[in-house]
Amino acid sequence: MKRYFAVAVALLLSLPAFSQLERKLANANQEVELTFHAPRHINLLTVEPLEKRGLHFAIMHTFGTVDGGAQNLWGLDNGANIQLSFEYGFSQRFSLGIARQSRDKVYNLYGRYHLLKQTENNNMPLSLSVMGGAGVNTSNYDFLQNEAPNFSERTSYALQLMLARKFSDKFSLQVSPMLAYFVDPRQIYFIEGDQNLYLALGFSGKYKVSKRASLTAQWIPNLNSDLRNNLGVGIDLEAGGHVFQMYFVTSQFLNEQYLLAGGNGVPGEEFRLGFNVNRIFATGRKRAARE
Amino acid sequence: MRSRLSVIIWIFLIGWSSALRAQSFKTESGNVTFLSKAPMNEFTGKSSKLNGLIDLEKNLLDFYVDLNTLKTGIGLRDSHMRDNYLETKKYPFAEFTGKLESIPTMVVGESRPVVAKGVFKIHGVQKEISVKGTIKMLSANELLLDASFPILLGDFKIEIPSVVFYELAEEQLVTIQANLKK
């Protein structure tokens, strides 16, 4: 009898349950967010995507080397290299940007495509994005007369993969194999290298110390040149829609090609103060709200 | 032996027939809105993934929404909201479980004012609340629920960002609208 009773109970349990609803996530493959605070991290681009119709505006500065001390206000007196950039999200995965660096007056057109996105449940353990860029040096070289570089000789190109993982709420790491190519690496340009092709491995790290602040680091060892490696350490601060990034870095350069070919100072005495302001605007917001 | 088996079948049949008679209505696509009305900045977080159950026979109300589905129209603001304030990785749901103060007699095509009492939970903090709303019986198999209630973020240990460009109000008006079916 007991056995039959058990069967009966089991059958009753198979009836539609009237107790509380089972709590289920709407999307089990939830994508990880905010691997980094912004699409930029010190000088390198990250896997952090823009939303569709999102516009990322960044102002980046680096100043002179700090070894001049208080006399030069730790390098702030020496003219800054400034890069302004606008990047627009055409979809959740694809964005195009334009940047202008004041050193050599380089205009850089670049795009990012996000191939893989890490998920909270680790079905996808990594995020993978690819970046490609083409730049042109628009400085005036008329004084070189016949020797002045033509358009093609002024161009340079960059390609990089960005492989990142948010290991915890606090710690994220990105490894970026990078390539830069200068059609004509002239001495008169603001670069130290004389090769056409530069290969490097970028490392970007973030460690969150509070809800809105993280310690940041970047290290870009060169793989095929004798140039010094790039090292940067800093802090990211979130204030509403802005992300402020302050750092010490060994290079004054702000775009990918010049970061690899431009050369670096000795970490410490030849650190330069750097400062980025990132702002992300939502464009076409009214339409988005109606959807 | 045969009689024992028939007992089981009877229990089963009675169970099933009561299930068919039951006044249990459910949805997985209700709407929920959090309205933040700060002096300088008004915005809403919306989700259409409200899961709900109204059982008029057992007098049970049970609702929850995955806060990851809450959208304000600005992706970055959403990420910051999830990551820094709601902490959805730790506390993914906003939930309400309770009962009606009295069960109204429902007539098709008519709405009835109702008051629900129960526990609201968000950000891992529970609080007893009382919610006013209306239930309209659209058909024998369909209910329309409208309700709204204010919550204070401070009651649920949700920190209000101090230095932000999108000002967040301490009081949030939660509005739900759900079409529940048998």
UniProtKB/TrEMBL annotation, chain A:
May I ask which residue range the UniProt record assigns to the signal sequence?
1-19
Q: Which InterPro entries match?
A: DUF5777
- Pfam families in UniProt: DUF5777
Q: Does the keyword Signal apply?
A: yes
Q: Which UniProt keywords apply?
A: Signal
The DUF5777 domain extends over 36-281
* Top-level division of the source organism's lineage: Bacteria
> Is Signal tagged as a keyword?
yes
Identification of the protein by name:
DUF5777 domain-containing protein
